[in-house]
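Deadline looming. Please check this record:
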Amino acid sequence: MKNVFGKKLYISMMLACAAVLLIPAVAFGANYPVSSDTDISTLGLVSGDTITVASGSSVKLTAPNTATIYDINIICEPDVNLTVQNVMVSAASGNALAFSGGTNTLTLLSTNSFASGSTCAGIAVEDSTVLTISGTGTCKATGGYRGAGIGGDNETNAGTINITGGTITAIGGQAGAGIGGGQHKAGGRINISGGTITATAGLDAAGIGGGAVGSSGVISISNGTVTATGNSSGAGIGAGSMHQAERITISGGTIRAYGSAYGAGIGGGSGNGASTTELGGEIIITGGTITATAGQNSAAIGSGHYAHCGSITISGGKITATLSSSTYGAAIGTGNYGRADASGSAGSIRIDNGDIYAYGGALGGAGIGGGQYSGTVNITINGGKVEATGRRAAGIGGGKGNTNCGTIVITGGL
């Protein structure tokens, strides 16, 4: 008997193999290395392509219009001077723009935008990398899930970010800082000396500083117009949730800092309840026009909820620190339930000069000093024009429920 079934099976398999051979091969993204000025519209880019800027090169990338290019990545090798003009990139995966290693510059001309995929920063500046952003143009940088707008990817500290010019909007992905660390990581070193910057945090992160569960890093603002907004448990400028400020220095500029329900306007994120052991770092203000506010359980300048405010020193500037109704924190000092160290102190405040208006939380925060049920805060005022109002609390001293306000020394001022 003839094996008809076997022949049919053999013919079917041959036809199937022939069909497979006729299917076009799937093209993986091409890599376009550039080391000189390039109009990227001439590259014929398609989804999955990568532009690699060669190490040590100075390159201007331009586009003829502001149409968004989807699903490409621009990767800069170390020590790159990159200028972008009308470059709009939205990456479904990976970084829209990334700097890795060395000392780099990014100059902004016209209108630019970089939006990255999940876990990636909009503009990545990884640990050990230095990036200086300048120019007359604008840039919007949007992080993917758990990535910073500008700074670290998920689980990555930011490097050193210097901003000297440009109009920049930085939006963190969920758990990423607007400018600073990705989720669980610190803000690195952030220096702002010019430009107009708007930084908005993802969940539990700082507008400028740490990602969710990330410390502030070292932040310095000497000029520019800066608006920073924290989210949920993150500070406007400072740390993400469950961490405190390391060092924040403000010497100039116009700053608006909006904290969250549990994070300070300028300073620390939320603490971790009675188990908090991390102490606040330093907040140093020598100049600038500063408006700071926060939500229900935080200080406008100082600590978040259940946290230590560290050392706050003010020697200049015009400062307005206010809290609205239904809030428990001090305007300058600790948030609700400010945590004390082993000596019983929840922090210290020193004012040598400046024009200061401090208006504490309506439900029990001092103008300058402690939030509701806070540990003691030691306060020294040597000069300046100071107006401090507490509500259900001292103007200068302890918050509601504090039986010991700490040491208060006033030797000068108005």
Summary: The first helix runs from residue 4 to 22. Confidence is low (pLDDT under 50) at residues 1-27.
